[in-house]
Each structure stands twice: as C-alpha cells, then as structure tokens.
Write a structure and sequence with these properties.
Its main location: membrane. Belongs to the V-ATPase 116 kDa subunit family. It is a multi-pass membrane protein. GO terms for molecular function: ATPase binding; proton-transporting ATPase activity, rotational mechanism. The chain is α+β, with helices and mostly antiparallel strands and 817 residues long. Helices cover 58% and strands 7% of the residues. It contains 25 helices and eleven strands. Helix 18 runs antiparallel to helix 22. 28% of the residues are buried.
C-alpha cells in the first residue's frame, strides 16, 4: 500500500558504459524496463548521430519483414502465435548479421518468384486470349460474303488502286482482345479514322478474365477489323495500342488456324504445369518463413529500439566511453546495476559499466507501481491528469469510494449479481482473454476488477434498499404492526389506512428497508427523502476527506504555512455550513419521533432546507403552536456564529497566503538562480515560484478562492445525482417488471407457460441492455465525474508527467496496436 499512497521516489542516474558493452547492457535494461533515458543529443540531427547506420539497417530489415508478411497475407498463410515465454531476446551483433542475410535471401527469393510468376501469368493469359481469338474468329473467315466483300464493288477508272493489277478484292484484317466496356468507344474511333471503310466483328468471351493492369476479373471480347490498305492498317494498330487492346496473329486459312490452336493448347498445358510447380515452391518458402517471422520481427524491433536508445548517449572526450542519463525508481537501482554488470559480462568488456546517482532540481517523472487489480483504478486517475511528483495518489482511496458511489446509484441486488458474474468470467478466463485485441472488449477487460467491485457493492446497497429487480425480500418479516380491527379493515368506504411508527414490533429493521414499503402509497416520497439526505451526507463526507488530504501534501512538501492559510479556512467554511446541515439531518432523525407529543412530534419536525436557507439569509419562519422554529435552544445564536466565521474564512483564503509570501520576501535576500530547475519543478502542490510577481500571486489566489467558495455550493448540489440516478434506476426496473414480465402471468394453462418463456426472454434482454449496460454506463460516468471534479479538485494538482521506461514489452505491445 505504501507504493499506492504516493508515487515512488525517483533518482536521476548517470551511466558509464564501454562502447563494446553498450549494446548488451541496453538490451538487459530493456528486458527489465526500469530506466527512462534522457536524450543528451537533442541539438544533433537524427541523421548525424553515431548509430544512424545501424538504425537504417533495422529499418531495411523491417521493410523486408513487411514485404514477406504482405506476401503471406496475399497467399492467406496464417502466422503462428508466439507466447510471451517464447519471445526471443535481442540478437547479438553476430546474430544480427545472420538475420539480415536470411531476410535478404528470403526477400530476393520471393521477389524473383513474384517476377517469374507474373511473367508466366502474363504468358498464360496471352495464350488463353490467343486461343479465344483463334476459336471465336472461325465463323468470321468461313463466311464467303465477308471474304469477297470487296470484289463486287464498281471499278473507278480514275482510281489507280482499283485498276487491273491493283489490290482488288483483297482485305487485310487485325484480330485481338479488348475489354468489353471499351469496345463501343473503340468501334466509334475506328469508324471515324477510316471514314466508314472498316468492317468490325466481335464475339464475347464467356466468363470473366483477369485484367493485366489491376488483376481484377473483367469482361472481354474478341474483335476482328477488316480493312483495305497498308496505311489504314497502321492507324488501326495505333488505335488498338491506345485502347490497350491486345493484338494477336490469326491466319485466315482454316488449316493454319487448326494447327495453331493445337500448338497453343500444348503451350497452355506446359504453362499450367510450370505455374503449379511455382505456386508449390512459393508456398513452401512462405510456410518456412512463417515459422520464423514472429521471432524475426521481435528481434528486429528490439534491435532497433536498442540503437535508438544508444543515440541518446554521449561519447566522452576520449571516445572510449558512452555516457547516458535516465530516471530510475529508487527501488530499482540495484536491478539496474545488476543489468549493467550482466551486459558487461556478456560482451566480455575489460572495464565494467557503472552508475552514479546525481543531484538535480528538475521535477522527476511520476511512477506508481500497480498490479492487475489496482491498474484499472490508477488509469481512471491518470485520465484526469498525471500526478505531480510524490503527490498523494487518489487511486488508493478510489478502490473503495468509486465502486461504493457507483453502487449508491446502481443499488439493486439482482443487477449487482449480473455484474459480478460478468466480471468473474473475465477474471477467471483472463489469461485466454488477454490475447484478444478488439478495442471495445479491451475496455471492459481492463476494468474487470472495477466491474467486480462495483457488482459487490451493488449487491450490498441492494440489500440496504431491499431491491431485487424492483421487488423486496421479506427476510426478517415486517416490523410494522397492523393495529386495526377487522371492521375497520373491511369498511368499503375506507381507501387508505395509516400505520404509525410507534406501533411496531421493533424500532429498527435489522438490515435495510422494511419490505412493507413496497406496498405503501408514499413509497416514492419516503425513498426520495431518504436517498436525497443520504446523497448529501455522502457528498459532504467525501469533500471533507478530499480537503483533508491536502494536509498530507502540505506536510510532504514542507508547506506548513499552507495548512493554516489554505486548509484551515477551507475546512471551516465547508464544515460550518454544509457539515452543520448534515448534523441537523442526524439530529432531526434522532430527536423527532412518534413516541413523544408536542414540539418534538413528527408533525413539528422542521424542514432542513428551510432552516439552512434562513441560516444563510438570516430569515425567519412562522410556526404553529406547539411547534418551534428551531430544533434546540440556542440554535439561532450558533447558526449566526457559524455564518460569521464562514464569511471570515473568505478573506482569510483570499489574502492570507499572498500576504505571507509578501512578508517572507521582504525578510529574506533574493534567491540564487538555479539553472537546472525546470518550470514544473519550481511549483510543487500548487505553490508559487519565488520569482513570480506579487500581482499574479494575488490574482491566482483570488481565482482559487472564488472557485472554492462557489464550488463548495455547486459540488454539494452535484452529489444529488446519487439520489436522482438511484431513483431513476429503481423506477425503470419497476416499469420493466410491471410492463413486461408481469404481462406473462396473465395467461392460463399451457399458453401461460409459453407466454412466460417468451416474455421472460424479452424482459431479460431489456434488463441487461437498458438497466445493466446503459444505466450502468451512466452511473459509471457520473461516479467518474464525482471523483474528478468534486473530490480530486480539493487536493489533487495533476501537473506531473508519466514515467515511461525503456521496456521491450511496452514497445512490442504499442507496435502491435
């Protein structure tokens, strides 16, 4: 618990490591994860540092790993999962050279296979398209009308190309394959360039063909363009190239086409055989690489991280030693020394590495050691702001106050059991479930112990409220006595009967609410009053505890004057006003009862709210005889004194600390400059820097005083959300019972059993979805606000920065995410 009370003590250490032992030493420190290194070369560019070449080598190996992994995903080869126990250590430099060579060999082999495979695939596609051209153009060339189309045209005596001996009646042609979506535009272009002197025929290829450009399946068609003249032939080929149409040789003679089809079929069979063999070889290479890829990836990441940290180090003047600095928890100083010694031993260094603790005025990072139980609560606090160094840690108290305040709003025994069962499942199966990387699930999994405690506390408050799915349990029997005759009870004109608290078997119900309140007409009025007062009581106690925790900070930072100038007026202001209101609640419960008559009877009990308002505004209330305005003698005088003292506390908070600082500065010489002191380290726990102008100090204190005085009122009212959400949760639960589940009990015989089964399913789904999930999330957020704003603002500064050690575990998890 000492670790949770405040953050751990940190030490700034200077490391002296021999260059030949630096790699092994940093690797050992990375496995232990207890040093946050500082960059001593901030002015040096990343490209001018000592180990930039090694970092680039690691980048190149990561690129190769990504390529191999991408090829595996392309072939749908799954990578084996590597457990934490099987994770390899960082490779030594000799192993790194072998790893680099292995990755280079694997990448080159895959790239060569990919290039050969692409070439073979392209040849196979061309052969298939050529086969389609040869087969689908059979009908074009067998039509004699098409072949002799030009021989029936009239001869123009003035046209030399149509004279005897010219090219008359002979047509040239171009055959090929084009995408179907481009064919119609292709046809119009051919028509325009030839002025209608081209005859185009097409035949669609059945099925989908792979597109060479995108690899996606597309529709293609075979075309044959008949024309006359060499010049027009060149134009047609240019248009085919522009439309990315593949042109293939196609003889016009049937026998030649048949021979060519047989030759193409033989070549296709050979290509299929080669493609299958290439795919098998590629699969073997990728499967072999998949066995080692997770280990290779971890080794490269660790190696890159080590060289990245080594770039933070500075060489000494002689160049024979590397000097580094880093923050280390005081408890881990021995661990760091052991890691340095182990690294020097592994590298067989002649001079062992050593560490010095140096003094500094800089503010250290904040580090709170947690386990899997306290980690969730610590994350809730850190989300508000990282604690200042050695500041009181609210997470220690949130382990109890957070689930308790949640349960006050979520008080239902049945719903609490659901939360406990869900959290218990996550806790029991946590080793298996920890491997799941789904974001929403990880939120619930990370807070499994928070949910478990919230469920346990909800069961407890469910007992106190005597509420189980909106129904009450009659464990001890009702304490109320039915002190009426049978004639009165059977009177048809009597609608209501009143039970007096004086007519009871026992004065106090053993645990929680008496079950008879479930039948009372004034149930909501009674619970409203009870829960409203309870929320104010819990709120004032929570805020007083928060203000009291500031004393612990003042004592630790040796700001003893702040105890009298800040804490004392704050706690007096809070207790004399709202603490006194809580006292009046308890006094009213104890004094006013049904056993006495006169001024102390329940009918004469004054309203606490009216009394409090009259106390602040010095008002007066007229009361009938024999009742009295005040609950006890001298109450008016006491209230007046409390109000006067509370008003005095305001200028006390406003001027006390600034005047103290002013007098302290006048009586002391100006402080010497501290060149190493950081801005964060000069102001612990809300203090003021010694060089801060007095005007700013007065302004800061005025803002702080106004904020505290106003927030005391608003924060007390804010705790009424405990009452509001508790009432809403109970009423929603009752509505679901009466409007859904109760409807299943109105049927008779076998139909009723089926109806109850169906209605129970709907009621269960609505209960889990609305009352547990949505209402639970609402109560969780309201509880979080009560801790962040109402509780932690009283003492928690949250101006620190997190301790982020160099740890391989953290690096690997972050890169996976």
């Amino acid at each position: 618990m000492g670790d949770m009370f405040r953050s751990e003590q940190m030490a700034l250490c200077q490391l002296y490591i021999q260059p030949e032992a630096a790699y092994a030493s940093i690797a050992e420190l990375g496995e232990r994860g207890c040093v946050q290194f500082r960059d001593l070369n901030e002015e040096v560019s990343s490209f001018q540092r000592k180990y930039v070449t090694e970092v680039r080598r690691c980048d190149d190996m990561e690129r190769r790993l990504r390529y191999v992994e991408a090829e595996m995903k392309k072939d749908e080869i799954d990578l084996p999962l590597l457990s934490a126990e099987d994770e390899p250590a960082a490779p030594n430099p000799r192993e790194a050279v072998d790893l680099e060579a292995q990755l280079e060999k694997t990448e080159n082999e895959l790239r060569e296979m990919a290039a050969n495979g692409a070439s073979l695939k392209a040849n196979f596609t061309h052969m298939e398209e050529l086969k389609c051209v040869l087969e689908n153009t059979e009908g074009f060339f067998s039509d004699q009308e098409i072949i002799n189309l030009d021989s029936n045209r009239l001869v123009d005596p003035n046209d030399p190309t149509q004279q005897p001996g010219g090219q008359r009646g002979q047509l040239a042609f171009v055959a090929g394959v084009i995408k179907l979506e481009r064919f119609f535009s292709f046809e119009r272009m051919l028509w325009r360039i030839s002025r209608g002197n081209i005859f185009l025929r097409r035949c669609d290829i059945e099925g989908l063909c792979d597109d060479e450009e995108t690899g996606r399946p597309v529709l293609k068609t075979v075309f044959v363009a008949f024309f006359q003249g060499e010049q027009l032939k060149q134009r047609v080929k240019k248009v085919c190239a522009g439309y990315h149409a593949s042109v293939y040789p196609c003889p016009s003679a049937h026998a030649e086409r048949a021979d060519m089809i047989r030759d193409v079929n033989v070549r296709l069979e050979d290509l299929k055989l080669v493609l299958n063999q290439s795919a098998d070889h590629r699969c073997r290479v990728l499967t072999s690489a998949a066995k080692h890829l997770p280990r290779w990836s971890i080794m490269v990441r660790k190696m890159k991280a080590i060289y990245h940290i080594l770039n933070y180090f500075n060489p000494d003047v002689t160049g024979k030693c590397l000097i580094g600095e880093g923050w280390v928890p005081a408890q881990d100083l021995t661990t760091v020394q052991e890691a340095l010694a182990r690294g020097s031993k592994q590298s067989e260094s002649s001079i062992p590495a050593f560490m010095n603790v140096i003094d500094t005025n800089e503010q250290p990072p904040t580090y709170t050691r947690t386990n899997k139980f306290t980690n969730g609560f610590q994350n809730l606090v850190d989300s508000y702001g990282m604690a200042s160094y050695r500041e009181v840690n609210p997470a220690l108290y949130a382990c109890i106050t957070f689930p308790f305040l949640f349960a006050v709003m979520f008080g239902d025994l049945g719903h609490g059991i659901i939360l406990v069962l869900f959290a218990a499942f996550l806790i029991i199966k946590e080793k298996k479930l920890a491997a799941i990387r789904e974001e929403i699930f990880n939120i619930f999994f990370g807070g499994r112990y928070i949910i478990f405690l919230m469920g346990l506390f909800s069961i407890y408050t469910g007992f106190i409220y005597n509420d189980v799915f909106s129904k009450s349990m009659n464990i001890f029997g009702s304490g109320w006595n039915m002190n009426y005759t049978e004639a009165v009870m059977t009177d048809p004109n009597l609608k209501y009967i009143t039970l007096r608290p004086n007519d009871t078997f026992f004065k106090t119900y053993p645990l929680g609410m008496d079950p008879i309140w479930q039948l009372a007409d004034n149930k909501i009025i009674f619970l409203n009053t009870f829960k409203m007062k309870l929320s104010i009581i819990f709120g004032v106690l929570h805020m007083v505890f928060g203000v009291s925790m500031s004393v612990v900070n003042f004592i630790h930072y040796k700001k003893y004057a702040s105890i009298f100038l800040e804490f004392l007026p704050q706690v007096l202001f809070l207790l004399l006003l709202f603490g006194y209101m809580v006292f009046m609640m308890f006094f009213k419960w104890l004094v006013y009862n049904d056993t006495v008559e006169g001024a102390l009877s329940p009918a004469c009990a004054p309203s606490i709210l009216i009394l409090f308002i009259n106390m602040i505004l010095q008002g007066k209330q007229e009361t009938p005889e024999p009742c009295k305005e005040f609950m006890f003698d001298g109450q008016k005088s006491i209230q007046m004194v409390f109000v006067v003292i509370a008003i005095i506390c305001i200028p006390w908070m406003l001027l006390g600390k600034p005047l103290y600082i002013m007098m302290k500065r006048r009586g002391s010489p100006p402080p010497l400059p501290k060149p190493q002191e950081s801005a964060a380290g000069a102001d612990h726990a809300g203090g003021h820097g010694e060089d801060e102008p007095m005007g700013e100090i007065f302004i800061h204190q005025a803002i702080h005083t106004i904020e505290y005085v106003l927030s005391t009122v608003s924060h007390t009212a804010s705790y009424l959300r405990l009452w509001a959400l508790s009432l809403a949760h109970a009423q929603l639960s009752e509505v679901l019972w009466n409007m859904v589940l109760a409807k299943g009990f109105i049927f008779d015989s076998y139909v009723g059993a089926i109806g109850v089964y169906l209605v129970f399913g709907a009621w269960s789904a609505l209960t889990v979805g609305i009352l547990v999930l949505i209402e639970g999330l609402s109560a969780f957020l309201h509880t979080l606000r009560l801790h962040w704003v109402e509780f932690m603002s009283k003492f928690y500064e949250g101006a620190g920065y997190a301790f982020e050690p160099f740890a391989f575990k953290t690096i690997l998890v972050d890169e996976e995410d």
